[in-house]
Amino acid sequence: MGTFMGVYLPCLQNIFGVILFLRLTWVVGTAGVLQAFAIVLICCCCTLLTAISMSAIATNGVVPAGGSYFMISRALGPEFGGAVGLCFYLGTTFAAAMYILGAIEIFLVYIVPRAAIFRSEDALKESAAMLNNMRIYGTAFLVLMVLVVFIGVRYVNKFASLFLACVIVSILAIYAGAIKSSFAPPHFPVCMLGNRTLSSRHIDTCSKTKEINNMTVPSKLWGFFCNSSQFFNATCDEYFVHNNVTSIQGIPGLASGVITENLWSNYLPKGEIIEKSSARSSDVLGNLNHEYVLVDITTSFTLLVGIFFPSVTGIMAGSNRSGDLKDAQKSIPIGTILAILTTSFVYLSNVVLFGACIEGVVLRDKFGDAVKGNLVVGTLSWPSPWVIVIGSFFSTCGAGLQSLTGAPRLLQAIAKDNIIPFLRVFGHSKANGEPTWALLLTAAIAELGILIASLDLVAPILSMFFLMCYLFVNLACALQTLLRTPNWRPRFRYYHWALSFMGMSICLALMFISSWYYAIVAMVIAGMIYKYIEYQGAEKEWGDGIRGLSLSAARFALLRLEEGPPHTKNWRPQLLVLLKLDEDLHVKHPRLLTFASQLKAGKGLTIVGSVIVGNFLENYGEALAAEQTIKHLMEAEKVKGFCQLVVAAKLREGISHLIQSCGLGGMKHNTVVMGWPNGWRQSEDARAWKTFIGTVRVTTAAHLALLVAKNISFFPSNVEQFSEGNIDVWWIVHDGGMLMLLPFLLKQHKVFQTPFEKNENLFLAHFL
Fold first, then answer.
1. Measured between alpha carbons, how far is 471 from 618 in angstroms, rounded to an integer?
2. For this UniProt entry, which segments traverse the membrane (predicted)?
């Protein structure tokens, strides 16, 4: 597939969605043209900057199935990749729920209102009844869509072109209607009582009275505001009495100049009546009547950002299909960026057209109550509002099917990487490759979103997950660029770390602007997954940027340590533990590591060293095997540190090399730990004590402290057993050219010191 069919059109289909047809007019009416333009521009800039970063990563090698998950995990490591991959999966799953809720809203509000199961005459309880309808029908739609996906994805792909055609025809109908409105605006009258908007669903005529057989009789509107259908002896609402009923044009048209009234915001709390500020009205309060058009949700700038952002997601569609592209490294950047520019132009131009063509009270009327229950954007379209209604319904169903198709495959890709143990079961699939278990989990999570039942509440949730995914895409690109890793050679050249950092900042800002508590919850979920993978997941080495960052940070820290000797306050014992190996390359005194672990409690530097006598070329394999043995022992004893083995012709030379060369820069040992030579009096081999004395002399010459543990074979495994064991720990400290021998007697967790002679000759004689 080429750029147009493989990337451009799939991105268009995924970006255009339910928000454009159901909520964009409401966003413009509530926020005003200026703030709505700013909301759309910020969201589009966020996705454009993310697409630039994604293009750089996608052209730095092959991107197989998994799309964004693969890019992030290979760039930032399995921990970040798994956390963000699952967030992206949850976002895609909640997107399926949002599209299904959008389809149900179109079906129940605009296509077949009579299909509603739950009804309420009370205007304040009508929204609760609608939520229950959304839950029932949403669940039924979800089951139907899951069955379609389960039977075969090929049917979904076959209808993808049809769904995209519906979207394109609907958008063209909006532009055609806007152009036509400049010389022949459509007739959609809006009934007003004073400056308050009236619902036209139950009104037969927009007046208090009407003429029947040359007789003036009360209209239906009279009956809604008065307690009697007769003129005489009727008690009417005070506001109804003092204000006239008028009719205004709902679609004044492009040349009407209505945009001047729609420039500014009009945020209202829930339950407020939608009013036209320029209309005349008596200063009378009156009673709240269900025939008014009411605000169904408390609005604010931050709320509108969270609701609108899902309409710009879907930019990963091209990268997810990289395996089907003729030239992925060329098609992904061009197709994705062109799709974002196209959709951004459509959104921004529609914001201006809606503000210039449609009356403000109609824009703020979310469900079209003032225009006889028509879809607001449909009233502007040409040739008929049904073009938008039918087109948006099918495009929304198609987007839901696409989400239910893509989310299980993303989960399957994460499970097959085997970085999250409890997800392994979702890596299995049917004989034809369909991820059955992953599809069932996706359906269960999507059902949670459908039970929320409100498009306005589900949209901010998936905004969080998508924003977090985009944030880490930008972070991955910026990190790889700044570290200049050797394998970072993207074919896409129009990227810069500053653009990636700007995109990352916008993503983070949008997360907290739209909903700070959702943002915190999303971060906590990602953090928990990150720590779980870190401690429980399988170890993967993908040459990721975090490892490169660790190397750069370590290099910087080591260079800083070289600037001068450590201050007394920062001093801590940095141990070099010398272990002796037996003939089978097993550690002879493993309790020495127990002592080192209890002494340091995991702080500071620990290097565990040993010497193998022989020729390096001949004993290289033995050295590797011994190193693995020591590392396993260190893990068992919970000693955090490094292991270093030396192959030398003589034992004393090997120990001398270890003491001299271990460590790097400022991270060098200042204390040597070793065991007392066992049975040196009875041993016929004099090398045991001579090696010991040689080690003491080398340590002394290097100005290091020496810890010698005696009776190591009986060393206790925990501190509580110290009082039961007969252990002497000899601490030999070099101090101004003198040696002190201090035996420590550990009794009941108390330390007693008995200094010996400080004369070097007496000290050596005591050893001999």
1. 52
2. 6-24, 36-63, 83-113, 134-153, 159-178, 292-312, 332-358, 437-455, 461-482, 494-511
Q: How confident is the model at residue 766 (pLDDT cuts 50, 70, 90)?
A: very low
The number of beta carbons lying within 10 Å of the beta carbon of residue 629 is 18
SS3 content of the chain, % helix, strand, coil (to 5): 60, 10, 30
Place of tokens 């992904």: 332
Sign of the dihedral through C-alpha 159, 161, 164, 168: negative
Strands 671-675 and 705-709: what pairing? parallel
Mean pLDDT for the stretch of residues 37-63: 89
Do the bridges between strand 209-212 and strand 215-218 make them parallel or antiparallel, or are there none, so unpaired? antiparallel
Residue pair 49/506 in contact by the 8 Å Cβ criterion: yes
Distance from C-alpha of 367 to C-alpha of 109, rounded to nearest angstrom: 7
At residue 474's C-alpha, the angle toward residues 468 and 475, to 5°, is 85
Sign of CA dihedral 765, 766, 767, 768: positive
Q: What angle, rounded to 10 degrees, do the helices at 385-416 and 68-76 form?
A: 40
Task: Identify the helix (H) or strand (E) that includes residue 475.
Answer: helix 455-483
Among 121-125, 473-477, 540-544, 589-593, the minimum mean pLDDT is found in 540-544
User: 3-state DSSP call for residue 745?
Assistant: strand
Tell me how far apart the alpha carbons of residues 190 and 279 are, in angstroms, rounded to a whole number: 13
Cα-based angle 463, 3, 95 (whole degrees, multiple of 5): 20
- The more confidently predicted of residues 88 and 99 is 99
Q: One-letter amino acid identity for 42?
A: I
The partner residues of 738 in beta bridges, in order of sequence, read: 735
Alpha-carbon gap, residue 210 to 189, rounded angstroms: 17
Indicate if the pLDDT at residue 733 is higher than 70: no
SS3 track for 698-722: HHHHCCCEEEEECCHHHCCCCHHHC
Task: Compute the residue count for the chain.
Answer: 768
Calculate the dihedral angle through the C-alpha atoms of 138, 140, 143, 149, rounding to the nearest 10 degrees.
-70
Look up tokens 């921004």; give the residue.
348
Mean pLDDT along residues 543-551: 63
By C-alpha distance, which of 717, 719, 693, 718 is closest to 706?
Answer: 693
- Bridge-partner residues for 510, per DSSP? none
Q: Is the peptide bond before 383 cis (omega within 30 degrees of 0)?
A: yes
d(CA 45, CA 43): 5
Phi, psi of 357 (to 5 degrees): -110, -30
pLDDT at 234 over 80: no
Is the distance from CB of 398 to CB of 141 less than 8 angstroms? no
- Quick one: how far is CA 62 from the chain centroid? 23
Q: Which helix (H) or strand (E) holds 732?
A: strand 728-735
Nearest CA among 659, 634, 639 for reference residue 648: 659
Closest CA to 419 of 94, 93, 90, 69: 69
- Output Rg (C-alpha) for the chain, integer angstroms: 37
**What is the spatial distance between Cα 419 and Cα 66, in angstroms, rounded to a whole number?**
14
DSSP H helices in 288-327 = 301-308, 317-320
Answer for the pair 707, 671: CB distance below 8 angstroms, yes or no. Answer: yes
Q: What secondary structure does DSSP assign to 591-650, as a single string?
A: HHHHHHHHHHTT-S-EEEEEEEES-HHHHHHHHHHHHHHHHHHHHHTT--SEEEEEEESS
Mean pLDDT of 708-733: 49
DSSP 488: -
- With CA atoms as reference, report the closest residue to 445 among 416, 410, 470, 477: 410
Average pLDDT, rounded, for the chain = 82
